[in-house]
From TrEMBL:
Protein name: TIGR02281 family clan AA aspartic protease
CDD domains found in the cross-reference section: retropepsin_like_bacteria (cd05483)
Stretches assigned to coiled coil: none
NCBIfam families registered for this protein in UniProt: clan_AA_DTGA
Amino acid sequence: MMPTTRALRAGRRTALLLALVLSAPIAAQSVTIEALLPNTVVLKVDGERKTLRVGDNFRGIVLISADSSAAVLEINGERQRLGLNRNVTTNYVAPERRQLDIPRNERMQYITSAEINGRSVRVIVDTGANVVAMNASQATALGIDYRAGVAGNMETASDVVAAWSVNLQSVAVGGIRIENVRASVTEGKFPATILLGMSYLQHVELREADGVLSLSRAW
């Protein structure tokens, strides 16, 4: 018996609905960032490892941007910025934003507490310094074997002194922790206070208003 026109139409509708169900993206339940590269991220999605480049879409996850510190992902239409080994589920939670406000002192300096390699120190926020900078005595007090770094010279206001380029395990200010931060260690007493330079500051947002400098970052 030949199928009727009504039966054929019903069959087509059923096939179409089935095709739509099969082609619909399956929402990921758990997403973890395992590696970060410029414009590239390695994710573990529900236990499956996947490499995405900017613009790639995998199971409802789109990579918007990525650098060595964090990636911006669009997950089921919601955008958020995630750091290395940060896990997110489909129950979207806005990323935490940490902020530290530093008032300017009478010498027009922004001085605050920081942790370098887990040890507490005082630092001056200095956007004119390319890297975190300290003198040899300060480095020794922090347990840094600076002479194992790359040797060179640095020009100060009054002299040219020996200097070493090193990588710090971590620098944290106001709870904003950055790992593997480049630093310079100079022979002598300069700088008297450790300078928090751009090798750290490039990873945070800086805003200055009414004599208060704000450092912030979303996690």
